Amino acid sequence: MDHLAHVSNQPNSQPQSQISHLALDIGGSLIKLVYFCRYDDNCRDDDELRSQNESLGSESDNSRPVLGGKLHFAKFETSKINDCLEFIHSMKLHLGGFHDCTAPSSDKIFIKATGGGAYKFADLFKEKLGVSLDKEDEMECLVTGANFLLKAVHQEAFTYLDGQKEFAQIDPNDLYPYLLVNIGSGVSMIKVDGDGKFERVSGTSLGGGTFWGLGRLLTKCKNFDELLELSHQGNNRVIDMLVGDIYGGTDYAKIGLSATTIASSFGKAISDNKGLVDYKPEDISRSLLRMISNNIGQISYLNALRFGLKRIFFAGFFIRGHAYTMDTISVAVNFWSKGEAEAMFLRHEGFLGALGAFMSYEKQCLDGLTVNKIPQRFPISVSSAGNKIYCSMNGKSNDNESIECTV
Amino acid sequence: MATGGGAYKFADLFKERLGVSIDKEDEMDCLVAGANFLLKAIRHEAFTHMEGHKEFVQIDHNDLFPYLLVNVGSGVSMIKVDGDGKFQRVSGTNVGGGTYWGLGRLLTKCNSFDELLELSQRGDNRTIDMLVGDIYGGMDYSKIGLSASTIASSFGKAISDKKELEDHRPEDISLSLLRMISYNIGQELIIRIRLNVLLELCSRIILPKRAILAIFFRFLRRISYLNALRFGLKRIFFGGFFIRGHAYTMDTISFAVHFWSQGQAQAMFLRHEGFLGALGAFMSYEKLGLDDLMVHQLVERFPMGAPYTGGKIHGPPLGNLNEKATLVLLLDLTLHFVWVQLQISWMEKFVLKGTEITAPVPMAPPGTTGLGGFEVPSSKGGTLRSDASALNVGVLHLVPTLEVFPLLANPKMYEPNTIDLSDHCELEYWFTVLSEHLPDLVDKDLMKELPPFPKKREKGNSPCVHWPYENNHEAVASEGGTDDAKRRGDAFARAFSAHLARLMEEPAAYGKLGLANLLELREECLREFQFLDAYRSIKQRENEVSLAVLPDLLMELDRMDEEARLLTLIEGVLAANIFDWGSRACVDLYHKGTIIDIYRMSRNKMQRPWRVDDFDLFRERMLGSEGKKPRPHKRALLFVDNSGADVVLGMLPLARELLRRGTEVVLVANSLPALNDVTAMELPDIVAEAAKHCDILRRAAEAGGLLVDAMTNTLDGSKENCSSVPLMVVENGCGSPCIDLRQVSSELASAAKHADLIILEGMGRALHTNFNARFKCEALKLAMVKNQRLAEKLIKGEIYDCVCRYEPAS
Question: Organism's domain of life (chain A) (predicted)?
């Protein structure tokens, strides 16, 4: 979706009142935006989104008690923060913060923000948009966002195994404890015991940033989704050293390693005979993806086991609903846990932090705001032509899905 | 016997080319067996590595299990070892050494693993890794304990469009990779350990009902978090080619373990880790009975000819790391460690080399700590090469006759070295001392003085061949004056200098290093260059001169009363200890005066109180006080030092005094020559000569079987002669100026059984080593300090100060 075009087509066309709130999650690689539009003013932006996204299913069939509207999601690369600022500015999203209640007359506007960038870019936001970023703790936001999604959004979580997606019915009363694994540039693993009750138990630096960073260096792919796409056609056996390669095709049965288990990721690349150019980018991408997914799956499972957690939710922009990624993670968790633990994924995987930041308005002076019902269903596999000029990581349309909600 | 995946893969090839079947051993079995053997058999096999500093760890083998063995090869295996043959693979990961090298090759175009590692040392990972600070604008994320420098995402900065692969420095890429993989291993390891402890705790306790389970679980987890590492596992050892002695990798791994365990766990490494698998396969030859080996029976020798300098790679570049085989060969009771490049061409060469390797090699005389020799197969060709890593791996000699000295008060805590050379200043000092001493060893003046040595000795003669006794001129360079000797002298000087330089660069190159080891290294080196006894002629000359004045000394002594005599005797020992060719200061003295001049001068300086002066205590023990006569000692062990005046005018008269009091005397001397130290082989002749002038010595020597020629004379008068207690000579099992009492000859060990007094004499045996040693019986340590620095350091004194330390049995 071409935001720039879209935005420029409708300069200042949105009445300010439509945008109630904006929250940001500024990570190492991506900036995630969540903003809320009310229905009352028949948001055009919303219409457009709907039309472009084939069927966002935003026709509402339920009542709107006080204030109806939609939560919109968007993302930008952190390195292109200026695009993001421009977007916010042209959409007048920055006016959707909250005014300092103690000094109503002042023009001090706060926008909820989380992620490291909330600190790093605070001055930039001040300078360019004249808004202050009200910083929320990253982990807290992730947890709040996840809890919100898991409790409020129907069919938010699903399992993925052998290409089969299955929505999980999660009883909000039997949600805790669970392990939340957020795979952004790096990976955080958070044990969640309840609302606001959580602990970051682990993490790893082998995350989405590693996949994309190494992948860029190794394959010359221009964007993340292209790299992911490549992995579909790849064969990791070309590069990975399997148990069978070492044991002449036999399993190492004594310790339960089958011949196809990866003994060493990229272990075959040590051969003298082949250089980087001799390997197919597809194979490289596949090996890389398996290496990272496997590793995350394993560490997650170990942590889940350590804390006696049965459910592991994977989120973050690394996954982006990519089948093979989810499959690898699921297999890893399944393999290590011998089927005892379950890997689950979230449809709004990338926006937990931003959502959490958004939810934190609740605690502030906007006392009237409560999201009480989220009736929306979204098709997960909405296909969309990612616009390369605008957002290189824009492969799936999740980023502009909206959630209808009432406030 | 073979192990590793290749044992399966290449079985047919071995069959075809060598006509041998490979008896395939389970890889894990072998790793564990190898590690258990190394940890039990080699002292200071394990070490920690933090910030470039190695520290060797002494591990009590009763306190070894359970431990975790992390083998970082292509992939990573984590094995919990509970005992011999009792182990379990608890975890593993596919992100290991192969990943590092594979990705590294693709990203950097490095041609060898070592090159890639080398690069990482100059890298800066901040250009590629996304740090917490990069995300937080230079700030820490302190709430969850992440500092700004913590890596948030490995290679996370490489996503920037601006830089392509060519724009990144290979150094930075290598470092990022190294950190990524090392940290990941450390993390999985620590989680695994915590988890295992938890599960173990759970399994040990009968679990209560589900209701309380959660609380209980939380409680257990808390315990596991706090002392997991101490509770569950004693130690974590890392091995595998990824580590293989590379300082930087070890540092990174150590840091990762430290970081993830919040300082509770420490990574340890093994010096012979690259050979774990092969060694384990080797151990499975049960008939060798290697499992009964005791640590004191193993002596490690380093090939002296070609030290590896600077961690440079010798031989062909490393190709396929996976296909690298390790061989452990047992040749004449020595274990050799050999790296072999496993390539098709290698196979052919191995067939050839195989026969060479099994050819007989020179063997150490049994009962000694062994000769170096050129028997290391790695020196035979380019295909078989020693590992070029930062740590030198020696040849393990099995010397079944070596034992732990039975009179050590606490053998487990015993540390022979007084000075630990891991202190760099200390090492530097001794390095200088030894370097300056080199020219004396190959003294050009001496070479000229002495008549040329008849050229009858061909290179390649077995080192066991002894020189004709009449040849009194094979001192230092005496053997002398010949081109061959000069050449060897120069070669020795070069080789030893190289070893010293290597040590300066990597103090842990040869394992844990004390001054004793350093001095021994020099003796090894001399022997290797066929200088079997560099000081032979000097020793003989000094013995002759000293023996000539001995009768006068004995007469003088006999005129004194008991108390004055004892003091004079001790003074004599201290004064005579000045004759030490190992001391630079003394060598200078020799060049100025005659032996007797020096001795007199030395005697005159003997003013009590000495710097360390327990003489009064000793006298009271010997002579008693207030008319009470104490019981004489039953048997005294006298550890003698130098030839010449030292033994003849110092220790022999003291031995005579003890004999006179009815104490059996055992003279303990070196098995092999070291500097001008007297050897067990030379002592009987000296005693025989001295006995000509002294009845006491003669009768005691006869009783001790030292005077073989005189036996016929004494047969008739044997009745009265038998009344004397015996004077005996035993060898100590060493060939060094110092003595490590953990490895002494079985003769000495059995002679020590009835001893109730030990007298250690000389700098090497009483100061450099054993100064702090405690014994089950009384001990007297006598030495003159002939080195200013040692004097300052040890006794806060001056050069030529004396030490007379008497310690009751502890």
Answer: Eukaryota
**In chain A, which residue's Cα lies nearest the Cα of B319?**
A272
Residues in chain A: 407
pTM score of the predicted model: 0.65
Cα angle: B152, vertex B158, B160; to 5 degrees: 110
Q: Is the ipTM of this complex over 0.85?
A: no
Residues of chain B in contact with residue A115, where contact means CB-CB under 8 angstroms, are 135
User: Mean of the pLDDT values across residues B343-372?
Assistant: 33
Task: Provide the mean pLDDT of chain A.
Answer: 73
Of A34, A26, A6, the residue nearest A77 (C-alpha): A26
The whole-chain average pLDDT of chain B stands at 72
Average pLDDT over residues B608-629: 87
Sign (positive or negative) of CA dihedral B487, B489, B490, B491: positive
Q: Is B615 exposed, middle or buried, given 0-12, 13-18 or 19+ CB atoms closer than 10 A?
A: buried
The verdict on a CB contact (< 8 Å) between A205 and B129 is: yes
Answer with the residue of higher pLDDT: B213 or A57: B213
* CB contact (8 A) between residue A246 and residue B159: no
* Residue of chain B whose Cα is closest to the Cα of A267: B98
Long-range Cβ pairs for the range A213-216 (8 Å, 24+):
A213/B128, A213/B153, A213/B154, A213/B155, A213/B156, A213/B157, A213/B158, A213/B159, A214/A288, A214/B103, A214/B107, A214/B155, A214/B158, A215/A284, A215/A285, A215/A288, A216/B158, A216/B159
Q: B336 in contact with A at a CB cutoff of 8 Å?
A: no
Over the stretch B114-141, which tens digit does the pLDDT of each residue have?
888 888 888 888 888 988 888 877 777 7
Residue A66: partners with Cβ closer than 8 Å, 6 or more residues away: A368, A406, A407
In contact, B398 and B333? CB cutoff 8 Å? yes
Q: How big is chain B, counted in residues?
A: 810
CA distance B677 to B4: 48
Please name the residues between 69 and 128 in chain A that touch chain B, using a CB distance below 8 Å: 79, 115-117, 119-122
pLDDT score of B587 more than 70: no
Q: Assess whether pLDDT exceeds 80 at residue B540.
A: yes
Which residue matches tokens 């520290």? B55
Q: pLDDT-based confidence at A256, cuts 50/70/90? A: low
Domains and CATH numbers, chain B: 1-42+277-288 (no CATH), 43-94+171-271 (3.30.420), 424-452+467-529 (1.20.1700), 545-708+723-807 (3.40.50.10880)
Residue A263 forms contact with B (CB below 8 Å):
yes
**What is the tens place of the pLDDT at every residue in B306-327?**
333 333 333 333 333 333 444 4
